[in-house]
Write a structure and sequence with these properties.
This protein has 3 domains: 3-109, OB fold (Dihydrolipoamide Acetyltransferase, E2P), CATH 2.40.50; 118-179 and 207-223, no CATH class; 225-426, Chloramphenicol acetyltransferase-like domain (Chloramphenicol Acetyltransferase, 2-Layer Sandwich). 25% of the residues lie in helices and 23% in strands. It has 9 helices and 19 strands. The strands form 5 sheets. Strands 9, 12, 15, 16, 17, 18 and 19 form a 7-stranded mixed beta sheet that branches. The chain has a 4-stranded antiparallel beta sheet with strand order 1-8-6-3, with no helix packed on it. Strand 4 and strand 5 (44-49) form a beta hairpin. Helix 4 (162-170) crosses helix 5 (208-223) and helix 7 (258-272) crosses helix 8. The longest helix is centred in the middle third of the chain and has 16 residues, at 208-223. The chain is globular, with a radius of gyration of 26 Å.
Amino acid sequence: MATKLIAPRTGEGVEELTVTNWLKEVGDQVEEMESILEIETDKVITEFPSPVAGTLLRIDVPAGSVVQVGDSIGLVGDPDEPLAEAEQPEPETEEPKQSADEPQTTSEAVTAPEEEPIHSAKAEKKTDRSAFLSPLVKKMLEEHELDPDQIDGTGSGGRITKQDVEDYLASPKEETRKTPKPKAKPVQPTKTVSIPSDTPGQLIPHTSTRRQIAAHMVNSVQTSPHVLTVMEADMSRVLAHRRTNKQKFAEDGVNLTLTAYFVWAIARALSNHKIINATWTDEGVFAYSDINIGMAVALNDGGLIVPVIRQAQNLSLKGMATKINDLADRARSKKLSPDEVRGGTFTLTNHGTAGSLFAMPIINQPQLGILGTGMMQKRAIVVTDENGNDAIAIRPMVYLSLVFDHRAIDGESGDNFLFEVKKILESWPE
């Protein structure tokens, strides 16, 4: 019998994923454990292998579509076998969660339901939709105080998916929301723009990754009052240390980049400024015990992803560089797992790689801060010797841009943290 390709649970809390690309077409032969399609969760794209050898008989979820964990993505089997039963959709049950937690893996275990009218999916949306919400979607609706009846579901049977909620948040209609508790007035999101049909130009469709980034950015600006503070650091001692040790690290297969120095300095500073390594709750600020630093990595095909360096407070400079190399390489080759982009407590973004001197990055929710490093540039500065004599010298300088959540962090606390990062970099032992 034919075997269904079941949408896998790629990580804790994952209830849905996006099919980004089919690597095979209907009628193509596929070997057991051969990659047959690419799926995306939390901006992490991974290849999905076929559990059996055979022919790709059917594609249930086209590229660019969202699917719930446990649903059928496609069908692999013998091209000569009948597909009468397999072509029918899986029946809905009174306990949708059961189908997600205990997915059936072959079509022979499925009983085909009777054919329903075309309008049945629409009719189902008029029922109690809360019974068909995944735990993740329920949490998102509660967090943003949204009414599920006002959101169009694109999932199976009209169910609301995570992507549906994010799309709604990216372009919300305030009059359809439930009455929220009194809060600070949110920043108004960008409104949807309709382009006249006779306007010359080209529409560049949004990728799934771009839609997720857009939703996260709008949500962050609406959630946190962003404050920017900027300092500059003299990188002379860091560069001297790197010149001395780069070859030694390379002999062990480790590329000693400046990013390792930045992350190491941030981790040490966060150890002394716990209010920065935290998240906001209605009851208080929750300070994390571990320092898990997210590192923004630009992808070759556009967009970015933020893998997390876990327990950075315990890593040596060499261990930090090794971890950074591994995460960056696997991020660009789409080999990260969803869990490797979760659980960050602070983020570093190196916007200077494109020539930017300083910027105001957006906080990666639910964190309280993000630090941007600009392009290193030789500049003339005033230096003072041990006798108090001033002189003008040429130094390699870099701007450090800290953006923090003003709900939890005051200006003095933010400046003190950033100043410590600066001093660690400037006093690096040679």
